[in-house]
Amino acid sequence: MSRIKARFDKLKAENRAAFIPFIMAGDPDGALSLELLKKLPGAGADLIELGVAFTDPMADGPSIAAAGQRALKSGQTLRKTLEIVRSFRAEDDETPIILMGYYNPFYSYGPEKFVADAKEAGVDGLIIVDLPPEEDAELCLPARAAGLDFIRLATPTTDDERLPAVVRNTSGFVYYVSVAGITGKAAGQTETVKGALARLRTASGLPAAVGFGIKTGEKAREFAAFADAVVVGSALVDEFAKALEANPGESNNAVNAVLRLAQEISGAIRAARV
Amino acid sequence: MTQLNSYRTGPDEEGRFGIYGGRFVAETLMPLVLKLEKEYEGAKNDPSFQSELEYYLKHYVGRPSPLYYAERLTSHVRSMADEKSGRAGKKGAKIYFKRDELNHTGAHKINNCMGQILLAMRMGKTRIIAETGAGQHGVATATVCARFGLPCVVYMGATDVERQKPNVFRMKLLGAEVIPVTSGTATLKDAMNDALRDWVTNVDSTFYIIGTAAGPHPYPELVRDFQSVIGREAKEQMMEAEGRLPDVIMACIGGGSNAIGLFHPFLDDKDVEIIGVEAAGLGVDTDKHAASLTGGRPGVLHGNRTYLLQDEDGQIKDAHSISAGLDYPGIGPEHSWLHETGRVKYVSATDDEALEMFQLCAKLEGIIPALEPSHALARALDKAAEMDRDQILLLNMCGRGDKDIFSVMDALGAD
């Protein structure tokens, strides 16, 4: 059984939604992002999305785009991101890691070689923003064949006609983008999101996560009442950047600031269905 | 080179030219892109859409643009050739210009903007967005938006906003909102990223007028089709002027919309040699150039697979060219395919060569070319000098140089 499936089965038994934090690999450098990554499960992360930096992140708002720029500036590459996962995996064999990014670095690496190396490093799933189902032959099918989950984004523009195509080769879970827009802006309306997740769950038979625009414990708690997972990215990335900027020499403080926010959000998610 | 029966059948149903092109966009945009494809198919086969487009191209844009025999430039090339060979009278093809610089707004860009805005209105869209580098596409988009009364938002790299003040003012005068883009490296590619971010946020109301023959399918196809008026007219005009087709046709290439517009109608004329000229910046052996085919490799950016300037990790590199219109790290996917099939030959010209041609053409022909076609002119002169005198070379003069006089003044250190 995949780590993702095992984790969602466990959460279902506990009747709670997953907390999925997003951080950018290599932000502000490889060592510190690895340190943060290793500590996230202790702060309540059930699964983790690890960002793969790209120069041209078309679906990201300023926060995550800036995190990517910092990572690239520090010399981060996809190869080094796999190294980070390998180090994490040496100590944690249960928390699923999902790489999230844009296709070109993966294409440049070579899709076949990438899926083999990623599997070996301990990656569990992929979210590739600019690979719609029309381009499944590129990376989705090779990833599935190698035993990696390929998690699709569904959006408010995904209508009933299109939904079957979107969920067809999806595995692990489906990720609902709560608003038509970029990361880090406002989240969607609760009732709309609730309906969309129900529709996704029925169409895919998979757990349904929600993300984009969820910045506070309060909002996370609201969505966690009915979602199978809640993704928080920009808020954590911002917290990290802010703390590092305020005290550049105090990297421990910055890591702790992110962990505190993660704890607060995971606490709110755990309290959602009590 | 593999000979195909036709080079004009692309793209296929997946929006591909060979392996190039495709639809590499976020799911939010997929339904829109599919809808656009369907609507465009409808418009293409709708005589009333086509006749409306023709009407505006004639009465508003000023088409057809003239075909002009550049007599003094031809003489110049012939005397150069004579000097080189040491004997008189053999080499130096006749050089013709397709004068798209005479269009309203001063470049070929408006051919495409007119087509796309009619399509936008046909789809009931009420807001237009665009990206721009030097500002030519931005100005053309702002112009058609003013003409049809639609609000227009233009994304422009912050550094370009600073460098291209006259065009920024023109756009504002035309009623457009110009948004300086500071994300990434604050250049054309980042302006395109921000336009895509806007589009993804305002999917219901907004139509994105892409300025070059790139982006997700069907953009490369529809931009090509709207620009192909250049090649269709040129073919007819050349038959009228010379009774035959040219031996060589040439155009400059950034994203490649003027080039594909000239080339496409000639692709199956096997005796016509086709040459595209990329911007070599400070030289293709330096890291300051914009020659995606010469110095890049296939990758995926802005919705399509094509040749890109990128590092080993697949990160996109900044392009450099003195001409802001060629300053893009990618190229339209159809060019990537034409490059690989060998049907079109792609070469390059440096900043310095373009500057030299800018001045030469002004002095000899009384035509101040934009820096973009000045690149094509550099290789066209070399090519014409190797050709026989009874041969013909046609160059697309895709824009005029008024917009460039200040940057040329700076580059030459003139005052």
Question: What descriptive keywords fit this protein?
Answer:
heterodimer, A: 274 residues, alpha/beta, TIM Barrel, 12 helices, 13% strand, B: 415 residues, six-stranded mixed sheet, four-stranded antiparallel sheet, 16 helices, 44% helix
Describe this structure in words.
The complex is a heterodimer of chains A (274) and B (415). Chain A is built from 12 helices and 9 strands. With 274 residues, chain A is of the alpha/beta class. Chain A has a 9-stranded parallel β-sheet. In chain B, α3 crosses α15 and α4 packs across α5. Chain B is an alpha/beta fold and 415 residues long. In chain B, the strands form 3 sheets. Chain B has a 6-stranded mixed β-sheet, with helices on both faces. The mean pLDDT of chain B is 95. Classes of the chains: A alpha/beta (274), B alpha/beta (415). Chains A and B meet through α3, α5 and β6 of A and β2, α1, α8, β11 and β12 of B.
